Amino acid sequence: MPFAHLLYGVFWIVFIDLLLAGDNALVIAMAVRSLAPRERRIGTICGAAVAVVLRVGLTFFTAKLLDSPFLKLAGGVFVLWIAVKVLFDASDPPDSVPAPKRLGQAIWYIVFADLTMSIDNIIAIAGTSNGHIELIVFGLALSIPFVVLSANLLANLMDRYPFTIYLGAGILGRVAGDMILTDSFVTRRWHPSTTFEYVVEGVLFLLLMVGGKILCDRRKCRK
Question: pTM for the whole thing?
Fold first, then answer.
């Protein structure tokens, strides 16, 4: 590959990683929020690394991935479930679940959610790399430090400012709504309009943010 083309590809891959890393970082931050600082770092790095390794393989099947029914639907439902679980965890005592079990669950959540959320990232990098394996590996590996750093910053922010937990849950609700309504099965079966998508995403955002705050307050009062 000519050096100029290589630099051009690297530039656009870095730009794509920066642009698309936000949602993935948020879901990782929510998944590891209840862990201790050391386990949080381990869970974030391990989960992101495993997900990226799997992404490299999946990049070669982007056309099939894009058209796979129920993939984004399942991912959207799972992201919703993570958001709800984090809201429940926010009102539980820190030691209510054994640490090893928490760490294993967090890594599993990160891998599955990251893969189903990263179809756009996979497709963008596959298109930019023009099939060059070295650019594909570089682009997907580069997403690890971006996502890990962002996720740790977000998790620390949630520790310091608890209201950001509810904001994060609301954002995950919007992300989940977008994933569900853009799944190939849903679009072929019901053809949701852009307006309907915005309405559903807005409702899920408010439901998880406001409803989550009410739910946590009630659970804390009962305890």
Answer: 0.79
